[in-house]
Write a structure and sequence with these properties.
Length: about 280
């Protein structure tokens, strides 16, 4: 039948997290799952941390790019070459939960309409049942989702057949945009509920975080923080909190994220930057 899932991990200046994130990912694989490693840059500490895993039986492929090409090229490398039934990505600064692949693959098996379903990286006190209940739905096999048109790009599981029918990530397309494109075509996306926890270690509230002050943030600068003009730990934490709220309230109508509505959202983001506030997605 072939492999169940191929999981991409992109590494970049992540030696401080990799000793936790990669062993955890490998421990959660089933016998039909493999990891694909893509390393960006020449940080010697990260390369040293990777060396012991490059020839691990659970690692299908390893690629080293001296240029930091971020998301599109590594993702399309996996999507284009994998023969697995499902594809995924786990960030080098994230700790997945034990059993995450088993739960998500079972949900897919029972619900052929599922497109991209994922783990949840937000905190218990950020969950708003009064808001989220309107988006939580039950599906076949006793599975439930907090439905949303997109999920985070780590700890998700996607049917590989969707790549065959909808193509690879476009030249200027984000993973969020790709998820919305699938939803527009009828795929059901969302976060498995009850939530499958993912520890995002670049969240300053994580017990494993390396971001303790503003200097740490500027040194590490998560991509989402950089895109939103964040410069302080307080702003970064506020953005993460706002993201949790947005996922529980965002429209399930794909038209919201196209045409004039999308332009209006972009205008609000630019306005926040002009007055010195983080854009918060």
């Amino acid at each position: 039948m072939g492999r169940r899932a191929d999981v991409l991990m992109i590494t970049y200046r992540s030696a401080g997290y990799l000793h936790l994130s990669l062993p955890r990912l490998l421990e959660t694989l089933g016998p039909e799952d493999r990891v694909w490693l893509w390393h960006n840059g020449d940080d010697e500490a990260t390369l040293e941390a990777l060396r012991r895993y490059r020839y691990d039986d659970r690692v299908a492929r390893y690629h080293h790019s001296r240029e930091n090409v971020r998301l599109r090229e590594p993702t399309n490398w996996l999507w284009q070459n994998s023969q697995a039934r499902f594809v995924s990505k786990v960030d080098d600064d994230c700790l997945v939960s034990y059993g995450w692949l088993d739960t998500l693959s079972a949900a897919h098996q029972d619900n052929p309409a599922f497109g991209v379903i994922g783990s949840w990286r937000h905190w218990d006190d950020e969950f708003r049942p009064d808001l989220a209940s309107q988006k939580i739905e039950e599906f076949a096999g006793g599975h439930s989702l907090l439905r949303n048109l997109w999920v985070q790009g780590s700890g998700y599981l996607m049917r590989h057949e969707l790549v065959k029918s909808h193509g690879l990530l476009g030249a200027d397309e984000s993973f969020t945009g790709y998820c919305i494109r699938l939803a527009r075509a009828g795929a059901v996306n969302g976060f498995y509920y009850p939530f499958i926890r993912e520890d995002h270690m670049d969240d300053p509230r994580s017990p494993h975080t390396l971001i303790h002050d503003d200097a740490d943030l500027l040194d590490r600068m998560p991509l989402s923080a950089k895109r939103n003009g964040v410069t302080t730990v307080a702003q970064w934490t506020a953005q993460l909190e706002q993201s949790a709220l947005l996922l529980q309230t965002a429209s399930l109508d794909p038209r919201t994220y196209s045409g004039w509505r999308r332009r209006a959202i972009s205008l609000r983001r630019r306005a926040r930057r002009l007055v010195g506030l983080p854009a918060r997605w």
